[in-house]
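Example for reference:
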Amino acid sequence: MLQPPLGKPWLLYVLLGSSLALNLVMVLDRPSGDDADCDAPDVELTLTTSATADSDGLAAAPAMADGALADAAGVPVAAVPAVDVPANWRLTAADVSHSLARTFQSAEGEDGDALSAAYARLFVWDLDLRRDLQQGDRVEVAWYVNTQGHPEVAAARFHSNKLGRTLNAYRFQVPGESFARYFDADGREVSEHLVDGPLESYEQITSLLKDRPTHKGMDFKAPEGTPVKSPRNATVLRTDWNWHANGNCVELQYDDGTIAKMLHLSETQVKAGQRVSAGQVVALSGNTGRSTAPHLHYELHQGDKVVDPLDYHQTTHRTLAPEHLATFQAEVARLSATLDSAVAQR
């Protein structure tokens, strides 16, 4: 058997060296835009655009040879002009990977959980975001951190394969109203309202009965001192029991036998045994008991059964009045352009 010169496999060394050189050339020649997982700041918009590939490594749209965007099939995509937005805004655009929470965690790190919760509250009316997510769904959201240190959504879209359409929500404050609300592109409010509910004024519904197994009612985010009304003619059964958990609280029995509990109040204004009329103020909302922020917890029971307030009360979606539509549509155009521009630069 022939031995290599000086006892070394020179031919093997030559082949390995050639392979290494070829790989270096290929890496150096790769376009930088192919890195779909790169979380780079969007200098043009002064936003942070976060993007993540899904669990199968789906990447963002590729770039053409001249730098223009193209879709997955290589068809050119029209350029989206830059949009002026507040410097403190951030934008997240991501393909859904696993749960909604994990998608936002991958995109926004330590802010992901809070942003996921704020985003989910907008679309919980149309989808079960724990069970209805599908591969290829996409989230897009323009947001900022508010004065309380929590994510505040300015605009959001959810591309749902299950529904075969895109859900959208745009924050808009109707002139003369205390709080901004979220509306779809047609001016229809995204959340439902209880007909003859316990609050006339509140900022947002932050939790539904179906959101988690241990939660037995609806939560309304409202400033402390907001008047709480009895939705029906009723008898007061008790007040301020189990204060450590419930805080100040009122339990009513409606005339149809349904038991209603209102928890975490700042003040109760009725006593056990008292008769109250539908629409009568029985308490003021607050932040007492086991509560982390001002809100009203509204809970219904029929016998041993917990009843969903959405089923017990009739619900409605309001639409913007014609005199506000032009202003709203201008805001939608601005926010939509912001989302489009950032998504195009993923």
Notes: The longest strand covers residues 151-160. The chain has two domains: 36-190+326-344, 193-316. DSSP finds six helices and 19 strands in the chain.
